[in-house]
Amino acid sequence: MSPSPQVLVVGAGPAGLSLAAELAEFGISCRVVEKRTQRQTLSRACTVEPRTLELLDMRGRAAGVLARGRRCQHPPLGNDRTLDYGLLDTPFPFSLSIPQAWTVDALRVSAEAAGAVISPGVEMTALRQDESGVDVDLRGPDGSSTVRVQYVVGCDGVNSAVRDAVGVDFDGWNYDDSLMMGDVRLANPPGDAEYARITRRGMVGVFPFQDGTCRVIVLDREKFRVPADTPLTLDDLSESSAAILGTDIGIQDPVWLSRFRSSQRHAKRYRVGRVLLAGDAAHTHIPSGGQGLQTAVQDAFNLGWKLRAVLAGWAPDGLLDTYEAERYPIARETLRKTDLAFRFETSDSLPARLVRKVVMGSMRITPLHRLNLEHLSGITLRYPADGGGRWTGRRVPDRPLVAGGSGATRLYELFRDGGFVLLGPGPEPAHAAAWSSRLRTGTLAEPIGRGWPPHVLVRPDGYVAWAGTAVDDGLTEALHRWCGEPDQVAR
Ligand SMILES: Cc1cc2nc3c(=O)[nH]c(=O)nc-3n(C[C@H](O)[C@H](O)[C@H](O)COP(=O)(O)OP(=O)(O)OC[C@H]3O[C@@H](n4cnc5c(N)ncnc54)[C@H](O)[C@@H]3O)c2cc1C
Predict the structure, then answer these.
(1) What's the gap in Å between 32 CA and the centre of ligand 1?
(2) Whole-number Å distance between alpha carbons of 469 and 128
């Protein structure tokens, strides 16, 4: 029998696979159990946004997703208005159109290459924890078994069995309205690119994929109250889209079709002792703005290095608790914004139409356009500074590096070891060498941005831990606070 892994991840969706790669690549033994035996065809998310690509790029895992996706620099806002991703300060100035199943394929390849063991057809049925570990009951093709692990992470989606097993409430509500969607081919596509149109009757969005199929999303105000479990036919989708657009786009050859009714729910806690929750198991919301998959991957990157630090024995006190402290407010804000967006998208009331007009109009103003886009793409996401100063918690954009011993040519490559990165104008400060097992150093060839101080300590997930005009400004304290004890005295 193979030895028990240190971490059991329940669910091989975007959250579980991203987390498994984060753990396994850096020496933590990790098994992912997935109750499905087959790849899911009903492919939900249809985009991967820049911040998600940046996180994957920091570990050298973006190529598989990029190869399967279609780069869209100008996603539609509706009625011939488009977004301009070229305004973003990122190596990935586009929204990647890609069915979720293909993203999951790429993430699975990365997780397996990193050394994670993925067990399809195995369901988590119960768990019990004590001070030193968690006993997890599994049911699979070979019958039932129990494994003992140090941590369990529930990445098992909206109906999380892990969340139920630790008794965490998932408060919220279900939306009354149902939408229609499917992956299809179009005989008369409205153009060769992404497309969205809003009329009094509703909204139609078209997102072409690399293989010639496309996601069609139809929001028909006259069909909102059709129960979500009513089967969706090609005729239903075609009739509604033609009624909204006033023309037939020739919907055919469905890969899948589905009605969909969303809910908005948030777990009360993300951690109960040795059991943690991530992705849809922790929060779920309407897909407006395409944030669910992005949030799931971000959870995994925030949690991954903290769990590694705890298991490697160098985590400072309370580090694992910062996962919930940092990710909970982000999810709460996402829930609030997506709900607001959905209400304005779906309502035909005069105030809603006026707001839509104002929002569309505001997109003519470049700084407002950029601001909206930065939120949508995830690049303005920041964690609480928690007394750490103005820069703490901010995302660090990619920048070229002055050639050095590491061989890295740009900042994001320095994160490939999964450690902290200390940026400064010159040679590495002597006292930072004491943390060299967890820290890499680099010199930027150009400033991060206007006003940024020259010395910046960046966490393994790409957010600022400390920044100062001189290393005497508190670097040593920040290293102790975030990186634990120096190597010589590490446990
Ligand atoms: C219709 C629809 C459209 C969407 N569109 C978008 C979009 O455009 N953009 C976007 O970013 N997001 C979108 N989302 C949201 C996105 O799909 C989710 O946020 C994302 O899948 C969450 O990933 P996850 O890994 O947390 O959970 P999931 O993808 O749900 O994965 C959970 C996995 O856990 C497995 N599992 C469950 N219970 C157990 C158990 N007991 N034991 C073992 N395995 C178990 C499941 O089989 C599943 O594979 C959409 C969602 C829906 C429903």
Answers:
(1) 15
(2) 49
